[in-house]
Write a structure and sequence with these properties.
Radius of gyration: 15 Å
Helix content: 40-55%
Structural class: mainly alpha
Number of strands: 0
Strand content: under 5%
Shape: globular
Length: 106
């Protein structure tokens, strides 16, 4: 087994959530009602990006970490399937998101 780690300095969380939307089960998530309602709508990608973009950065960090944590199995299965479609044979064992920022929010 190999552990592959990516350290990302800047990321657009709206784009991340839109990419992961097919693997997210919104019913069980404790997220803003507007985001949950819009995310269930077909063609809602731009609205999801907008709602997330309006949130303060630390709330975006928390939201996406929460979504990934609570949809881990579905995301792993989806990304493994996406890799297989592209001819990449692999078994993804885990998906994890950590905030390693030195910034302290008071």
């Amino acid at each position: 087994m190999i552990e592959l780690k990516f350290l990302i300095n800047e990321i657009n969380y709206g784009d991340v959530v839109v990419y992961l939307m097919p693997y997210i089960k919104w019913d069980d998530l404790n997220v803003p009602a507007a985001l949950k309602a819009v995310a269930r709508t077909h063609g809602a990608e731009s609205a999801v990006r907008s709602i997330i973009g309006l949130m303060p950065q630390e709330k975006q960090d928390e939201l996406v970490a929460y979504i990934v944590e609570h949809n881990r199995d579905r995301i792993i299965a989806g990304l493994t399937n996406e890799a297989a479609k592209r001819g990449i044979r692999m078994k993804l064992n885990d998906v994890e998101m950590n905030n390693t920022s030195d910034t302290v929010v008071i």
